[in-house]
């Protein structure tokens, strides 16, 4: 049973791992500032936020679907000259304010998820930023204090006041999107078939030239380069049907040409790959960062990539076609932008089909040019008689997470 804190109240901490989270009714981010007894960071590395998710003794960890990430602190790893860790809630839309929504609640838990304290942050009106809680040292021990200090100067002003170097402001949020559907139930244990072996990234073999829109065949040793709308039947040369495949999806954020703290890093474009299963026109299941395994075990998501940095696949979704229930007629692969960035800020977006038994790339579809959408329907795998086929789609929609995308996917499942 957690204890309720009032504004200004402090309480002891007897656990080495502390997880700070926020219950919100508006899209927002949770960040942390590690400050000395002068109230300043030692360097930009002491600011932990979506574009820099780790710091000394502090890291962001994904929150539940639709909720901000949590701040996990290992107190024994916090440097001795850090006096306080301040947890900051920032609304995604800076033109909105906390007075428009139900008051946020800051939660303090231990490393096992047991709630220790809760603080309902009342009294906020025109602010879009609030210093919610702070962890601080007292006589060799750590304590937590309910702060609830609204900040009117803007996000850049807040971090500048704490000594963080700022050049570019964070990118503006996307237009508001419709309400999301509830998250699916907790998934069952992972399926038994093994994931692809980890290998260093190698450039794909030279692709076969694209054929006109229509259906093409898989060619051994030469992955097919698909164009929008093209299809391939999931059979190897010789007519052997593929049984276990994986879809690799990748992207890179467009790099900023400017310097400074924000500009020195690529934008924090958090894209998420998902697989949506359809039984005719109806949703059968959704596999995404919040449910990594289909309820029937036929699809597995290898996990969430928060940045898109690095070569190769950013996220991988495995499909055992032999375990897909007979009523499932299509599996649609989508990529959504959790923070509302559009694909105009993304480069090199692609999806590729790989044979899980040999790790051989069979087909690839590369998105041509950026689009003013926050989600992309990349491809679908669907049944035609006794065969499975893959089709490149490449259509944009507005959705920041799978719950917002699902109602818009019916037309792709039936096409």
From TrEMBL:
<feature type="domain" description="TerD">
    <location>
        <begin position="1"/>
        <end position="162"/>
    </location>
</feature>
<feature type="region of interest" description="Disordered">
    <location>
        <begin position="163"/>
        <end position="231"/>
    </location>
</feature>
<protein>
    <submittedName>
        <fullName>TerD family protein</fullName>
    </submittedName>
</protein>
<dbReference type="InterPro" id="IPR003325">
    <property type="entry name" value="TerD"/>
</dbReference>
<dbReference type="Pfam" id="PF02342">
    <property type="entry name" value="TerD"/>
</dbReference>
<feature type="compositionally biased region" description="Pro residues">
    <location>
        <begin position="169"/>
        <end position="212"/>
    </location>
</feature>
<feature type="domain" description="TerD">
    <location>
        <begin position="224"/>
        <end position="399"/>
    </location>
</feature>
<dbReference type="InterPro" id="IPR051324">
    <property type="entry name" value="Stress/Tellurium_Resist"/>
</dbReference>
């Amino acid at each position: 049973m957690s204890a309720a804190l009032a504004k200004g109240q402090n309480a002891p901490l007897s656990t080495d791992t502390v997880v700070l989270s926020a219950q919100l009714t508006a899209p927002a981010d949770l960040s942390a500032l590690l400050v000395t007894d002068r109230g300043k960071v030692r360097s930009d590395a002491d600011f932990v936020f979506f574009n820099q998710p780790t710091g000394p003794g502090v890291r962001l960890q994904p929150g539940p679907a639709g909720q901000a990430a949590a701040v996990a602190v290992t107190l024994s790893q916090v440097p001795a000259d850090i006096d306080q860790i301040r947890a900051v809630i920032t609304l995604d839309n800076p033109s909105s304010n906390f007075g428009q929504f139900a008051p946020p609640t800051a939660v303090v838990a231990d490393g096992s998820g047991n709630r220790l304290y809760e603080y309902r942050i009342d009294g906020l009106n025109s602010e879009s930023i609030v210093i919610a809680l702070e962890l601080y040292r007292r006589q060799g021990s750590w304590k937590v204090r309910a702060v609830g200090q609204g900040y009117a100067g803007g996000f850049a002003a807040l971090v500048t006041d704490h000594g963080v170097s700022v050049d570019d402001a964070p990118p503006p949020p996307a237009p508001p999107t419709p309400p999301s559907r509830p998250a699916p139930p907790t998934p069952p244990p992972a399926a038994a078939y093994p994931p692809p072996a980890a290998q260093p990234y190698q450039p794909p073999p030279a692709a076969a030239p694209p054929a006109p829109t229509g259906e093409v065949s898989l060619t051994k040793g030469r992955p097919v380069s698909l164009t929008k709308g093209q299809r391939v039947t999931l059979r190897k040369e010789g007519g052997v049907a593929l049984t276990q495949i994986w879809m690799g999806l990748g992207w890179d954020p467009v790099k900023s040409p400017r310097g400074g703290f924000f500009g020195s890093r690529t934008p924090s474009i958090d894209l998420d790959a998902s697989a949506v299963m359809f039984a005719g026109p109806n949703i059968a299941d959704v596999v995404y960062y919040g449910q990594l395994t289909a309820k029937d075990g036929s699809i597995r998501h290898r996990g969430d990539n928060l940045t898109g940095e690095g070569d190769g696949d950013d996220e991988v979704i495995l499909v055992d076609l032999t375990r897909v229930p007979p009523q499932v007629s299509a599996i649609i692969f989508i990529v959504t932008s959790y923070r509302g960035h559009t694909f105009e800020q993304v480069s090199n977006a692609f999806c590729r089909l790989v044979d899980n038994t040999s790790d051989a790339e069979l087909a690839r579809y590369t998105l041509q040019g950026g689009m003013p959408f926050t989600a992309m329907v990349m491809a679908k795998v669907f049944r035609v008689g006794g065969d499975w086929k893959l089709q490149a789609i490449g259509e944009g929609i507005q959705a920041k997470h799978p719950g917002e995308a699902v109602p818009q996917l019916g037309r792709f499942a039936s096409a």
